[in-house]
Input
Amino acid sequence: MKNKKAIIFGAAGFIGNHLVARLKAEGYWVRGVDLVSPKYQLSEADEFLLGDLRDASFVASCITEGIDELYQLAADMGGAGYVFTGENDANIMHNSALINLHSLELALKWKVKKIFFASSACIYPKHNQEDALAPICAEDSAYPAMPDSEYGWEKLFSERLYEAYRKNYGLVCKIARFHNIYGPQSVYEGGKEKAPAAICRKVALAKEGEQIEVWGTGQQTRSFLFIEDCLDAIRLFMDKDGFYGPINIGSTEMISINDLTKMVIALSGKSLGIKNIAGPVGVNGRSSDNALIERELKWSTQYQLAKGMQVLYHWIEDQLNKQK
Ligand code: NAD
Output
């Protein structure tokens, strides 16, 4: 049987580089595309094209005939320090929207058989996430829309764009809303890191007795999904005929950011305190609603948070040791 051909946009990113490895292990031929090469681990892609997906002529050179699956993961994104300050809004919206517009046009031209679009839990309305203990993130609660960031608005616009191409041109577009994916190879320094990796870095660098700075009251809640569980969900979703989403890919194991910090401190074996400081935090509460994914894909998480965070903590500790 002929190997399936996949293209991954954003293949140097955290999820993208893992996805390349997963598809290779499944026997795919893979073309990775990104602005940069992967930072922490070499790409296993058969072909890796470096370039800017905001440029239509570059996208035209990436998408060719005979592609079975396109995974569109490229986006201008980061953690709260990047997305919630407001300082990067114009770039976030402009850059990611251009990538999605070009991707669809070229996928249509070359009749790509299936397209995966990585949307985000950030599309959910702010007013449904004010209660830190009972946020509402069921897929059908997205409208009337009021995301709390321009990043979320761009994702929502692009979801609708992929849906419109499916409706008008019959392109098989599948939309997943990721909820805080974490694991090795996630960025852990430099301003684009997210809470799990940032906390692991701070704890790994702290000396006995120090206080770990946590943005906000620390009572804001989130759920986090380990990368291996995320990859399983992506692949099941792509293989399920006739189901297009949008679907949440996340965990229901909700935790406050202070409790997550305490978990990491316990993993480190150090004696450390927590100091809550002012900083960008986003909504009060957010957790995945998994009713739809459990029903449609018979998928559930294999990694409890404590197990996944242990893997992440040790990976970041190793990375920091290598820097010394
Ligand atoms: P990431 O930032 O690690 O990866 C994104 C990749 O896209 C980067 O390698 C970046 O270089 C590339 N990229 C950005 N602009 C580009 C351009 N103009 N041309 C070519 N490449 C470009 O992000 P990730 O965590 O791997 O997330 C992947 C996707 O999933 C993104 O679309 C993100 O918005 C979405 N998502 C992720 C999470 C999460 O928790 N990681 C949550 C919700 C949604």
The first strand starts at residue 5 and ends at 9.
